[in-house]
Amino acid sequence: MKNLTLWTALITPMHRDGSIHFEDLEHLAKRQDEAGVGILLAGSTGEGLALADDEKKQIVEFVAGLNLSVPVMVGVGGFNHTKQAKWITYCNHLDVDAFLLVTPLYAKPGVKGQIAWFRHLLDVSNKPCMLYNIPSRTGMKMSPDVLVELNDHKNLWALKEASGSVSDFKTFRKSSPWLPLFSGDDALMPDFAIEGGKGLVSVASNIWPEATKLYVEKCLSGDTDSLFPVWPDAIKALFSAANPIPAKRLLNETGVISEIALRLPLIEDDLTSEESLLKADQEIKNWYKTNSK
Fold first, then answer.
1. Helix (H) or strand (E) holding 160
2. Chain center to CA of 68
3. How far is CA 225 from CA 171, 232, 287, in A?
4. Which of 42, 165, 243, 284 is most enclosed, with most CB atoms within 10 A?
5. How many other CB atoms sit within 10 Å of the CB of residue 260?
């Protein structure tokens, strides 16, 4: 698992009535397995905070029961510490491989509060944990001191950095050079790779698992000439509305999932056009065909 360079923040497919579409979920998970890409369940792309606890349990149990060859990571995010600890305790007993621990939402704790939050969740876990810095969603930045203070914790494995800032990435890299850092932004993978990044937790790989894997390999090797402008344009289209609205639309348009269903406050009507998505899909397929030879 520690040598894996690409994880897919998997969408949660649903029926029109909002219930989980398990047939599509199996298909999505097996696509990632065939591509050799790790799977993250119940993250922000998976609308994790909009899912009921029982639904999250069903999703994790279902995917864990598919006996995939790739590792499975489970998202842990919110602001109720007791609830997060209980969720980790529950998943500890399932056949999953890791946890993604998000900075606490809304409360905006100081450095000591952040350290205490993560330390307790790491203590509860019996699996490797990737911490997750995403201030655009949580309302706060993770302090680099968190990683410094927790550097000797046996369950601290990696950091997913999604601040959208190369400067912040470099700060984390300087403060914790021993810790593998993953980009949480598809578009910034080339920049983060230059600064020592080890991989990507991706939205794009929902649609293009093999192509995104090659994209990451090229970024890590420094072979980036062919990426521009194909990949920046495709990623821009993929985030033309709130994630995962465009991803679900394109997966439906290409026949990978049966329905486009989201949980409020996300709504399909916020995506006003699919033209750029369909163009991106064709361009990425052409790019992969050319560059995978």
1. strand 156-161
2. 18
3. 27, 12, 12
4. 42
5. 17
Cα dihedral across residues 178, 182, 111, 88: positive or negative: negative
- Check 30, 83, 86, 132 and give the catalytic one: 132
pLDDT in tens, 138-153: 888 999 999 999 999 9
Helix axes 275-291, 245-253, angle to 10 degrees: 70
pLDDT at 61 over 90: yes
d(CA 77, CA 83): 10
Does the annotation count 160 as an active-site position? yes
Report helix, strand or coil for 129: strand
Q: Cα(254)–Cα(249) distance, rounded to whole angstroms?
A: 9
pLDDT value for 122:
98
Q: How far is CA 121 from CA 76, 134, 276, in A?
A: 9, 18, 41
* Amino acid identity at 104: P
From 159, 190, 189, select the one nearest 177 (Cα to Cα): 159
State the catalytic residue, choosing from 56, 127, 160, 213.
160
Asked whether 128 and 157 are in contact (CB, 8 A), the reply is: yes
pLDDT at 293 over 80: no
- How high is the pLDDT of residue 136? 87
**Residue 142 has what DSSP assignment?**
P
Give the chain's domains with CATH numbers.
6-224 (3.20.20.70)
Q: Structure tokens of 247? A: 């991803």
CA 218, 249, 270: angle at the middle one, nearest 5? 110
DSSP 164: S
pTM of the model: 0.96
132 catalytic residue (yes or no)? yes
CB 176 within 8 A of CB 148: yes
